[in-house]
TrEMBL record:
Active site: 158 (proton donor), 240 (nucleophile)
Alphabetized UniProt keyword annotations: Glycosidase, Hydrolase
Protein name: Glycosyl hydrolase
UniProt keyword Hydrolase present: yes
Pfam family, one: Glyco_hydro_35
Similarity annotation: Belongs to the glycosyl hydrolase 35 family.
GO molecular function, one term: beta-galactosidase activity
Lineage, uppermost ranks: Bacteria, Bacillati, Actinomycetota, Coriobacteriia, Coriobacteriales
SUPFAM superfamilies given in the database record: (Trans)glycosidases, Galactose-binding domain-like
Length: 594
């Protein structure tokens, strides 16, 4: 059965009647599909009526012309799950999403030969059009006017914090409408004049919404003044009401007091419509965390996207959820509330390592070797995320040779004949490294990690977002040439051959553990005692760990486990690792220097 929804005048209208949107953000790609229903149920139980999600281009088209819409990428199944809970949906299929996500959702293959992202460059727009040819026909049947549950679509995301090209915005809008999207479009920006003027299409009648997390009276008033200044009256909506914040390595998490948050949300709902960002933050699985741009030292975000949201990383209600629910009961007594749901967690246990595989000895099992005269950046090797191992022969020019890695991102480890010579991060890359090669020459290996591309701000299109080694490695005053390159996205580690123990535990290595369970449930892998790397559960990369914190744990959804024996593999880049692996029943936070 089809319905109507519009954003004309001062109110949203659903089937001709005034309608307030009470929405919460749940990103389907940050939550295991087995848990979608759990999170959506808790959203409905809070008295909310809609769910909002971004659509990450880089997850759906990881390589140009290769599309994914299964598993974590099954946006249609997520919309269907929301509909079963009686929830409407707001979908944000803009090319750029920010979202503290790898390169803001832009696919890495755009880096070379596809023009300037988020611009009218025909090469970029051609790539967007090809992506929309696949995506939009999957979204269109879920629109409210076709019997689905989608109310609105986003044209672009916080474009007013990046540029002001109305022609580009109109082209994206046209690409969406030409492919069958008929429900109202909107833009979302900071609620002040400069951002709204640059990033909205209000003069075209497109709904302009604001993003903020406090002072709702002041921010809604600014949004209203902007509308009136353009001779428009539109519904007031905060498209991102920030109820928490994301975390970066080495920084303490930010969490709001539940009572203060509930009061602020309640005041906002008394004025307009609200989308809580986030309602359930979830997890940056794999290597998909983003990065905050800074003038000198960029700050990479952690695997957990808990966000201090009403639901914790596993999807269970927190004290902030309880405070919001009490507020809804008090201020909006006519809104029906449900009973929240909670998921169990496995009992804590300790696993013993039963196999190891050294990285340098496993390159042929993990990668297809490339050869080039000069080092090639990650994207020109056909790779998006993960690591690249660069190898060459270093002649014995002297008893001690000075090396420099020139223009690389984000972290390098240099090995001479398998022995670690240096570890360098952004501010150190390019500094001198001294090694002593054998008289007949030595094998030089440089392992480079992409720690996450910038997802917001002026560095978004900078050359620094290309990863790997962009220039080369110098010995004395000349560039070394004649390289073997091993792309290591680590998206398939099934070919690894493990031994009971190995002689190369001090080098980067994979450590295998096994876990037997009767009934799968959530768990947390506690990486205390480990240094840096990532963890695989039955072949699935659950994300990065780093001893800097603020968390030592990685969340493992129960949906990744199976009854019987499960395989856990730790890729440790910085040391021998631990002989044991601890599974905890909740997140473990450590004190940081922040």
């Amino acid at each position: 059965m089809s319905h109507t929804f519009s954003a004309r005048g001062s109110s949203f209208l659903l089937d001709g009647e005034p309608f307030q949107i009470r929405s919460g953000a749940i990103h389907y790609f940050r939550v295991h599909p087995a848990d979608w229903a759990h999170s959506l149920h808790n959203l409905k139980a809070l008295g909310f009526n809609a769910v909002e999600t971004y659509v990450p281009w880089n997850l759906h088209e990881p390589h140009e012309g290769t599309f994914r819409f299964d598993g974590l990428c099954d946006v249609e199944a997520f919309l269907d799950a929301a509909a079963r809970e009686g929830l409407y949906a707001i979908v944000r299929p803009s090319p750029f999403i920010c979202a503290e996500w790898e390169w803001g959702g832009l696919p890495a293959w755009l880096m070379y030969g596809h023009g300037r992202p988020r611009s009218r460059d025909p090469r970029f727009l051609g790539a967007v059009a090809a992506y929309y040819d696949e995506l939009i026909p999957r979204l269109a049947p879920h629109q409210l006017d076709r019997g689905g549950n989608v109310l609105m679509f986003q044209v672009e995301n916080e474009y007013g914090s990046y540029a002001q090209d109305k022609g580009y915005l109109r082209t994206i809008s046209t690409l969406m409408s030409e492919r069958g999207l008929t429900m109202p479009f909107f833009t979302s920006d900071g609620p002040w004049e400069a951002c709204l003027s640059a990033g909205s299409l209000i003069d075209d009648g497109v709904l302009a919404t604001g993003n903020f997390g406090s002072r709702p009276e002041e921010n809604f008033a600014a949004l209203r003044r902007f509308q009136e200044g353009h001779g428009r009256t539109q519904p007031l909506m905060c498209m991102e009401f920030w109820d928490g914040w994301f975390s970066r390595w080495g920084e303490a998490p930010t969490r709001r007091d539940g009572g203060e948050l509930a009061d602020c949300v309640g005041r906002a709902l008394e004025i307009g419509s609200v989308n809580l960002y986030m309602f359930h933050g979830g997890t940056n699985f794999g290597f998909m965390n983003g990065c905050s741009a800074r003038k000198q030292h960029d700050l990479h975000q952690i695997t957990s996207y808990d966000y201090g949201a009403p639901l914790d990383e596993r999807g269970n209600p927190t004290g902030r959820y309880d405070a919001l629910r009490a507020m809804m009961a008090e201020r909006f007594p006519d809104v029906p509330l449900g009973t929240p749901a909670y998921k169990p967690t496995l009992a804590p246990c300790v696993l013993v390592r039963d196999g190891v595989a050294g990285l340098l000895a496993s390159l042929d099992a993990l990668s297809e070797r490339r050869e080039s005269l000069d080092t090639q950046p990650m994207e020109l090797l056909g790779q998006n995320t993960g690591y690249v191992l660069y190898r060459t022969t270093l002649p014995a020019y002297a008893d001690e040779v000075r090396l420099r890695v020139i223009d690389a991102s984000d972290r390098v480890q240099v090995f001479c004949d398998g022995e670690l010579a240096a570890v360098q991060y952004q501010e150190e890359i390019g500094d001198d490294i001294f090694v002593s090669p054998r008289p007949d020459g030595s094998t030089l290996d440089v392992l480079v990690e992409n720690m996450g591309r910038v997802n917001y701000g002026p560095k978004l299109c900078a050359p620094s977002q290309s990863k790997g080694i962009r220039q080369g490695v110098m010995a004395d005053l000349h560039f070394l040439q004649g390289w073997e390159e091993y792309p290591l996205p680590l998206d398939d580690i099934s070919a690894l051959e493990f031994s009971a123990e190995g002689p190369h535990l001090a080098a980067p290595a994979f450590h295998r553990f096994h876990l037997a369970v009767d009934e799968p449930a959530d768990t947390f892998v506690d990486m205390a005692g480990w240094h840096k790397g990532c963890v695989f559960v039955n072949g699935f990369n659950v994300g990065r760990f780093w001893e800097k914190g603020p968390l030592t744990t990685l969340y493992v959804p129960g949906g990744l486990l199976r009854p019987g024996v499960n395989e856990l593999v730790v890729f440790e880049t910085d040391g021998p690792g631990a002989g044991e692996l601890v599974l905890a029943d909740g997140p473990v936070e450590i004190e940081t220097g922040a």
